[in-house]
Amino acid sequence: MNSNRVEHFSSPEAQAQAQAPAPADPESTDVSVTVSANAMQMPSLEVHRVCLPPPRTTVQKLRQRLSEIFFPDDPLHRFKDQTWFTKLVLGLQFFFPVFQWAPNYSLKLLKSDVVSGLTIASLAIPQGISYAKLANLPPIIGLYSSFVPPLIYSVLGSSRHLAVGPVSIASLVMGTMLSETVSYTEEPILYLKLAFTATFFAGVFQASLGFLRLGFVIDFLSKATLVGFMAGAAVIVSLQQLKGLLGIVHFTSKMQLIPVLSSVFHHMDEWSWQTIVMGVGFLVFLLATRQISLRKPRLFWVSAAAPLASVVLSTLLVVCLKSKVPGIKTIGHLPKGLNPPSSNMLYFSGPHLALAIKTGIITGILSLTEGIAVGRTFAALKNYQVDGNKEMMAIGLMNMAGSCSSCYVTTGSFSRSAVNYNAGAQTVVSNVIMAASVLVTLLFLMPLFYYTPNLILAAIIITAVIGLIDYQAAIKLWKVDKLDFLACLCSFLGVLFISVPLGLAIANLSRYRDAVRVPAFLILAVEAPIYFANSTYLHERILRWIREEEEWLASNNRSNMKCVILDMTAVTAIDTSGIDTINELRKMLDKRSLKLVLANPVGSVMEKLHQSNILESFGLEGVYLTVGEAVADISSAWKAQP
User: Fold this and answer.
1) Tell me: the pLDDT tens digits for 498-535?
2) Among 30, 55, 465, 586, which residue's beta carbon has the most beta carbons within 10 A?
């Protein structure tokens, strides 16, 4: 009879404490139980024994433990039982995903990628210039950073929808940290050297995390912390842009709330009414187009094209009215041509080396967290997986190469990636098309930006960062978990310190290979709290077990799996990151025609699941008191179907 197995997420200590009904044989020492296929025959349940794992040496236990921690997704499973030539091909595809999708690339895919690439280019060009200003760098650096990194990512990256380029948070943090020690106005060359060096160290750090399989390190940033951090950063960034919107010349470089507001009101004599009128007008226009696209996703192109349209229109207005509005500040001269090499500007010795390293690590973590989160979000929508560790290597190598070609820290941008997705991108070729558009701009169109007013850059930045304020997520945190909300609030108030508490407790995994199988079911027992530090790990490990089970069923000519039961008896706590993991897992399995069921969540966990409204998506047949009841009821429902 075809059957399925029970898996346990547990530590040896948890296994030793496991309680189960007495086995049929009084002399037996077996302690675990599962339900057989006959469980569907109600009202009695037939109980079967599950043998203890075979004895292992300490070395074997350590080897398995390390394997589960560093390779939860078993990245080399495709290499098993393959010829050397096949392994070589698979190796090239593993390290260079371009070899995986390129052989099957078609003209139809190209058409979709060209449209999406041109669409995100219209957004990337003005954003690149704006974000470079946010990092206190020359505007041209933003365009350089929108050309080389996307090309490198198109070869190394595995996400089909990630649009690469400068992002607001990394720009803000880099500009803040470097300008606290080095003045970008008094020592522009040194500042530029430190920016490139910080980018290099960010890339080294990111690539090292991926190569050493240490991707779980970024999980130290819980969702609650990130929600608060992003909101706080958005507020500070927006206030900083008052300099451009009001036309103030002398403005503080500090990022604290009080100094910024103080600078605004102490320099009221520098306010320019022409700048205010034009700046506020374009800001309202950009915010209006953003709302249109949010309410009607099919009109995504409205908000995507608005920044470039605003740049063009504001530049024309300044050219036509420059004699009447001389007080409006403009970008000025931008050099034409490709990225100049900058490897000779990397700063590897001197009193500011520690600053460059610290800035690189912090911006590296933040940009990596954003890039991987964005990649996974759109991968889940299209039912494919993104390897977090491979993405880290891709983004890291991209930034290392970028630091040698006059680029600063780049990653996957949520706003551009969302536009890329909505525009119908099919592969990373959309990044190549975007880079080609930036190339044309660098070679031929730079003089056109001479009269572009600074106020439009400020309006573009404000419009972009407003989307980082997720007040609905904060409200949800308050309803579901007050402690998570407190972490969010602390992060919001202390965002400039970037103080993220460290701590990691990943549940150990142990496998019962001799467990009895239940037809069409895969039953997994989680024996640890599910929270931000282990939620990503748990997500990857569950998907790996599902894949392995499907492979086993196929190789043994058994019927397909239909249902995955998550036994949550031992899950004593769950936070919002854990809830999101379960919800994402449900969505992914639903697209694969697999049903996810929760069994016996304890009271506190059930309460949070209810408050988060996630139970509504599971429906009446999504939560059961016991695994046995779940198997019996679902099996009966299948039998009743014609």
Assistant:
1) 432 222 222 253 333 444 566 788 888 776 778 776 77
2) 465
CB distance 249 to 495 below 8 Å? no
Q: Distance from CA of residue 138 to its chain's centroid? A: 28
Q: How many whole angstroms separate alpha carbon 375 and alpha carbon 218?
A: 14
CA gap 520, 526 in Å, rounded: 20
pLDDT given for residue 19 in this prediction: 36
| Neighbour-count burial of 630, counting CB atoms closer than 10 A to its CB (0-12 exposed, 13-18 middle, 19+ buried) | buried
- Amino acid residing at 230: M
What is the token pair recorded at 210? 């991926």
- Helix or strand holding residue 59 (H, E): helix 58-70
Buried-state track 380-394, b at ≥16 Cβ within 10 A, e below 16: beeeeebbbbbbbbb
First to last CA, the chain: 22
> What's the rounded Cα separation, in Å, for the pair 50 and 20?
11
Q: 145-169 burial by CB neighbour count: b if 16+ within 10 A, else e?
A: bbbbbbbbbbbbbbbbbbbbbbbbb
Element containing residue 48 per DSSP (H, E): strand 47-50
Q: Which of 626, 164, 586 is nearest to 398 (CA)?
A: 164
Query: How far apart, in Å, are the Cα atoms of 502 and each of 164, 201, 221, 499?
Result: 28, 21, 8, 9
The answer to whether the CB of 288 falls within 8 A of the CB of 463 is no
What sign results for the dihedral spanned by CA atoms 81, 82, 87, 91?
negative
| CA–CA distance, 610 with 476 (Å, rounded to integer) | 12
**Beta strands of 372-460 (E only): which ranges?**
411-412
> Would you list the DSSP string of 566-625?
EE-TT---B-HHHHHHHHHHHHHHHHTT-EEEEE---HHHHHHHHHTTTHHHH-TTSEES
- Average confidence score pLDDT of the chain: 79
- Tens digit of pLDDT for each residue in 546-563? 888 888 888 878 888 888
**Bond from prior residue into 519 cis (ω within 30 degrees of 0):** no
CA dihedral 215, 221, 223, 228 (to 10 degrees): -150
pLDDT exceeds cutoff 90 at 153: yes
Q: pLDDT tens across 275-302, in order?
A: 888 889 999 999 999 888 888 878 878 8
Helix (DSSP H) and strand (DSSP E) numbers for the chain: 26, 9
Cβ neighbours for 444, distance < 8 A, ≥ 6 positions apart = 336
- Give the separation between CA 357 and CA 504, rounded to whole angstroms: 24
* Percentage of residues in the chain having pLDDT higher than 90: 18
Secondary structure of 459-507 as H, E, C letters = HHHHHHHHCCCCHHHHHHHHHHCHHHHHHHHHHHHCHHHCCCCCCCCCC
Q: Which residue has the tokens 């007040």?
A: 471
Q: Is 149 helix (H, G, I), strand (E, B) or coil?
A: helix
Closest CA to 290 of 279, 305, 280, 275: 305
Give the tens place of pLDDT for each residue, 583-603: 888 888 888 888 888 888 877
Question: Residue 246 corresponds to which tokens in the numbers above?
Answer: 């009001």
